[in-house]
Amino acid sequence: MAVPTDDDSPTPGAQKWFSFFTISTDSVIYQSEVTRCYKSACWRTVNLSCRALRTQTRGNRIAVQVWIKPITAADGFDVDPVEPKPASTDGYTLLRRYVVDLFGLTLLKQAPENTDVPHSESNALLIALGTCWYLASPLPPDAVRERLPPKYLRAQAVSIRRMYTETSLSRLISLCTSLEQDTRWDRLKGEDVWRSEHRARLERTRARVSFLKLKLAAQRTRTDQERARVDKQREQLLEKQRVMERRYADLDERIAALNDRKDTFADTEHKLKEVLLARDMRQAVLVLELYSVYHVKPITEDLCSIMGIELPNGTFTDRDDDAIATALGYVSHLVLMISKYLQLPLRYPIKLLGSRSSITDDIAFDRSDRPRRFPLYPRVKDRSMFERGVFLLNKDVQQLLEHHGIGVRDALATLPNIRRLMLLLYDFTKQHNPDHGTPA
Q: What's one Pfam family here (predicted)?
């Protein structure tokens, strides 16, 4: 409920308070606190919902009394207008007395602001029911409608209630109070639900935070363990790296020493090759000198003579036995000397006795476990023994040729094979010493 108060005094301000009471029973409905007002009109909003329920009046007329007291220098001109004080009639003067007849309420368009409240006279009440305001005036509704601008009216004149009793107003106020209480209860219930949900979310969040903290601690522990393991492995790797570096240094030193030894070995090998070449040259020269001593000369392509004595290849029939024995003695001596010059032990040793020379087979033994000796002269009782001795002599010649990498064309050609060896040695000496003479 809004009550207009006017101040016509010339003072800069005044203190006022007002009260509502019924005319029939003079029972006070509401008494306000002492507030400050100015010359301009102001509105005072009063909530009569609770007090109206306790009012036992049934009258249709309400009186409003406004008490005022000018502000003096003793009271001070800086009194706070918003700070309420207890009301009292001491020193206050009754400024006005309004009598409002609840003959009919005019429904306004909406709840007006304090600065835009429509009114036609000073003794009027604005009653708030729900979200709307009702204007209570002693004038008839038609007169009120003529005095109010159309923008403030919500209902037509025919729809205006002609009469509202105090009981009806109490019921309306009770209904508004119930609605307000339900709204407040719903709001409080919503706040409780919100608090419960917020508390549940907070608990879940705290539990989640605790779980994450535990998980973070476990992860940190694992991280520390992994870091320690990595550091240990790093130390081991660094130690291995240092060992490898030392080994690499030792390896470099050994490689350097090996290279030095390799150079030394290369020099030694070169010298050895020179010595071996000189030895081979010397051996070849000595063998060629033997060739010049024994005069192995070709008679035909497959027949040669030694010291002027013809030696057939494998067949000794129809030949002089003494000539064959002499030629084989020369051949035995020549083969033995070549083996000594070449430092090559013969597979079948030769016992040199001139034309009575013999050869021994140390590989094959007879039943008496004694080396078998074969004669190199044809005058023996067993002709096969002589032929076996010539065969072993040709094997010694073949050994000399294979020592120089020469293959044997005919194993029975004794002197032609010796001549081939002499020609090979001659080519070797001619290649390294061009001044050496040719064999006769």
A: ATG14
Cα distance between residue 225 and residue 79, in whole Å:
75
Report pLDDT for 8.
Answer: 45
Give the list of residues 6+ apart from residue 35 with CB closer than 8 angstroms, or none. Answer: 15, 16, 17, 44, 81, 82, 84, 85
- The string of pLDDT tens digits covering residues 188-230 is 888 888 888 888 999 999 999 999 999 999 999 999 999 999 9
pLDDT at 267 over 80: yes
Q: Which residues have C-beta within 8 Å of that of residue 258, sequence separation ≥ 6?
A: none
Fold of 295-432: Actin-binding Protein, T-fimbrin; domain 1 (1.10.418)
3-state secondary structure of 362: strand
H helix or E strand, kind and range, residue 310: strand 309-311
For the chain, the domains span 2-179, 180-277, 295-432
Place of tokens 């040793």: 349
Q: What is the radius of gyration, based on Cα positions, of the chain? A: 76
One-letter identity of residue 178 = S
Q: Which of 360, 420, 367 is nearest to 385 (CA)?
A: 360
Look at residue 439 and give its three-state secondary structure.
coil
| pLDDT single digits (tens) 69-80 | 877 655 554 444
> In which region does residue 88 sit, left (phi positive, over 0), alpha (psi from -120 to 50) or beta (all else)?
beta
